[in-house]
Amino acid sequence: MILPFDPIPQRPMRKPLLLTSLLLSFSLVSCSTILNNLPGVYKIDVQQGNIIDQAMIDQLRPNMSKRQVLYILGSPMMADVFHENRWDYLYSSSIRGGDRTQKRVTLVFNDDQLAGVQGDFKPSALPVLKPSDEQTLELPKRELDKTLWQMITGIFGYGDSNEAPKAKRPEADSMIISPQNDSEKR
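-> structure tokens emitted (186 positions)
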């Protein structure tokens, strides 16, 4: 009897190998999911780059010098050697292991004057004054009779020639024991 030709031979080990590999891959995925979501595990906030907000961008005006921009935004994250008239500010943050957010601002200068702003923030058309959180306190004027040097030298008796050296305290005189009084007590 002649058997028909079977082009694909049956392999008995193929199904268990496939099931084992599927089971192993699912277990690895579930372990990473479990480890990422464990309660009570502290995850740090990761912040990188220059912190830039809309209030800082609103202070920028056309024709500002590079020095004024440095005062407002700080030094750029990336200063390209080949494009010296372009400054890139990058900021990325990941709060407690969540999705990473990234902000980017590119400043273009023409003859050391601010010519353009590109990126995630756009400057406002109206001038914005940043409100100050600082308070001014009025303190009464101090009346100083002597300077610190005069007080220090006065302690050691080397004060001004107009001043007499301080007298010794009476308590210190009463504490001196003379040898006569000490021998009489014996």
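The chain is about 30% helix and 20% strand.
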